[in-house]
C-alpha cells in the first residue's frame, strides 16, 4: 500500500515517491498531479503500478505519471518510462494494446454561424461514412499485399494512391511513417484483423467530434496553428484497431517465456519485456512501428471520409486542413542528456502525448517557432484542448497528458446513468449525438471521467505544455 | 441455472471471474463469458473451427487459448457456444469450436490480458479463474 506520507512534494503539481520506498525501484516515481488529484489516485492501483514501472531494467531519471493517470494493466494509463537502449528493455505492456492510439485535428475556415445550418446533415453523413468496425466495418477487405504496404509505408502509400494531400503527410507526427517498420515481423493474424478496418473508428472511448474554438489562451501560437475564435474543427480519436491489439498480444506471448532466457523478473506478466537490442526486442519494435503506421493510415483515411462528408454537406470546393496528428500510445527512440551524457532512450508513452518544444527538428517547420501542437480530448460532450510543447517539458521527456482519464468503471457508469440520460444531457446543451448503441454512450458518460479542465491545468502549470485554445463539441459521433 | 461466470468491477477494462467443475468446463465457460460480453446480434448459420494452442503453463494457456478464440471471433464474425477438446493438458489444447455467424457485435474486446491473472482449483475441487479483458 502507498500512502500520502510516502510522497515528497516537489511543488504544487509534482509529487515524488523516493527510490528507497521499495527495494526493487531503479529510480524514483513521480506523478504530475494536484494535491486533490493525488488523494483521488489512492482509490485505484495506479500509484502502485507507477512504482512497478520504476523497477524496469534500464529506466532513466524517473517513472512518470500524468494527471489523467488511472489504473491499467502493468503500467498505469498516463505513464511514461524512458529506458536506456544500450542496457535496458522494451516492454509492449508499457505501450499498450492499442498501439498508436492518437488524435487528429482538422481545421475548417468557417465559424460556427456559417456551419450551423449544415451540422445535422454533416453529422449524419460522417456517421455513415466512417463506420466503427464492430460488424459495421468497411465493405472493402484489403489484400495482404496492400496491408503490407500500409504497415511499412503508412500514410505515404495512401498519398501515392491519390488520397489526401502533401500537407496531410507533412503535418503528422513522423509524417505518418516510422521507417523501421517491417511487415514481415507482423503475424498474419494481425494482418487479417486489419484487412477491413482501415478508415474505421472502433468502439469504447474512440470518437469523432465536430467542435468549435471557444477560448484562445495564446493568440500568437493560435495564429501559427491557424486557429481562431468560433472556428469549426473536427477531432478524431482512434488507433490501430484489431491489428495493433493482435501485435501486442502476439509479442507478449513471445516475451513471457523469453524473459526466463534473459533472467528478467517483473512484478506483473503484462510487463513482459526483453532487452531492447535482443532479437525479440528488435522484432517487437519493428512490429510496433508497423502497427503505428497502420494507425496513422487509419486516421488518414478517416480524414478522407470526413472530407467527403464535409464536401457533400457544404459544397464541393469546401476544404479541411490537417492541424496535426499525434500518438499517445507509442514507443520512440529519443536522445536526452542524462547525467551529463547524451543517452539514447526508448520513451514508452502509454496514455501520454509527446510534446516537443519550439525549435525541435522533429516537428513540422511551420510550427517550429512555437512548439508541437498537442491534442487533448476531454470526455464525451465536454471540452478538449490544443496545447503546445515547451522547453520545460524536457523534465518529463517531452511528454504530457492524453485526455481526461477514467475515475469510474464502464460497468459502474452504466449502473449510475442510462444511455438515454446521457443523450438528453448532451442534447440539452445543444450537442448533436450520433451513436449506434446507447449502452456504449452510458459507459463514456462524463461522470465516469476526471474533469478535463483540471487535468490540463496541471500540465499547463507544471509547464509540460501550454494552453493554446479550448474546444467544445457541437456534434459527437461515436463508434459503438 | 448455475452461474458460470460473473463480471467484477474494474475501472477501465472488463474483469470476469469464471467457474467450472473441471478444467475443461472452466475453459469452455471462459469462451462463453467472452462471447456474451461481445453482445452479438443477428446470429445465423452454424460454423465449426479447429484450434491448436501451446503455452508455458495452465494460466498462460487459458489466456493464449482465449486470444486465439478471440482472433477467430473477430476475423470471421462468429460466436462459439461449444468446445470439443480433442487434446487437453496444462500446456496444450487441440479443440473444435462450434457456434454461429453473427451480423455484428455490440461491444468490442481488444485483447485478453495476463494482468492479475488467476487460475486455481478450490478446496471443493471446483475451478475458478479471474481474467481481465482490454475493452
From TrEMBL, chain A:
Its EC number is 6.5.1.-. SUPFAM superfamilies: Hypothetical protein PH1602. GO terms for biological process: RNA processing; RNA repair. Mn(2+) 2 binds at residues 237, 328. Its cofactor is Mn(2+). GO terms for molecular function: GTP binding; metal ion binding; RNA ligase (ATP) activity; RNA ligase (GTP) activity. Transmembrane segments: none annotated. GMP binds at residues 205-209, 328-329, 377-380, 384, 402-405, 478. It comes from the Bacteria. It catalyses: a 3'-end 2',3'-cyclophospho-ribonucleotide-RNA + a 5'-end dephospho-ribonucleoside-RNA + GTP + H2O = a ribonucleotidyl-ribonucleotide-RNA + GMP + diphosphate + H(+); a 3'-end 3'-phospho-ribonucleotide-RNA + a 5'-end dephospho-ribonucleoside-RNA + GTP = a ribonucleotidyl-ribonucleotide-RNA + GMP + diphosphate. Pfam families: RtcB. The keyword Nucleotide-binding applies. It is an enzyme of class 6 (ligase). Keywords: GTP-binding, Ligase, Manganese, Metal-binding, Nucleotide-binding, RNA repair. Binds 2 manganese ions per subunit. The active site is at residue 402. PANTHER family: RNA-SPLICING LIGASE RTCB HOMOLOG (PTHR11118). Monomer. Belongs to the RtcB family. This is tRNA-splicing ligase RtcB. It comes from Candidatus Nealsonbacteria bacterium CG10_big_fil_rev_8_21_14_0_10_36_24.
